[in-house]
Amino acid sequence: MEDADDMGRENSLKKAEYALEKFPLQYNCAQSVLRAFAGDFGVKEEDCVKYATGFGSGIATGQTCGACTGAVMAIGLYTADIEDRIKRKNKTYELVRDFLKRFQNKHGSTDCAALLGYNLINPDVVKNIPEDKQPKVACIPFVKNAVLILSDVLEEDKKNSQK
Question: Could you give the CA distance from residue 84 to residue 90 in angstroms, rounded to a whole number?
């Protein structure tokens, strides 16, 4: 019989697979991460896809990684039921900082251009990048790990809240 940690890890892996399912074809990194969590918060996937459209490619500027911004939006959904505005903001910021710290520890940065090694908003640069360094390939580990890290952060918060 699986324990709760094993089931949680299996669920996290399924979410990561789900995030990667259409990423190479249809969705940007932010959309892919956010839509993986939509069902957890009773939000329609198509709405998540709409909300996250401008957050891919480092918020369309090569800055903060879209996988990170998708995770930050998911944290906002996670804390949305906290009625007190100040408590909601404080909890959200705490979780965002935790997520970003873990992501940076794993990948060395939360900046899109730094993660890729080039700024993808320059089409002349991008067209000369080898296929294995193109965002739809190079960003796969960032999308996957954003989902896994966020799953851990949220699961730990749920456990800590029950104490």
Answer: 10
Q: Which of 153, 135, 117 lies closest to 28, judged by CA?
A: 135
Is residue 130 classed exposed, middle or buried when 0-12, 13-18 and 19+ CB atoms within 10 A define those classes?
exposed
Torsion sign over Cα 90, 111, 78, 74: positive
Q: Among all chains, which residue has been given the structure tokens 């320059």?
A: 122
Mean residue pLDDT of the chain comes to 93
Domain boundaries, the chain: 4-157
Give pTM, 2 decimals.
0.93
- Which phi and psi angles does 15 have, rounded to 5°? -65, -40
77-91 pLDDT, tens per residue? 999 999 999 999 999
Partners of residue 111 on adjacent β-strands: 64
Q: Do 88 and 82 contact (CB within 8 A), yes or no?
A: yes
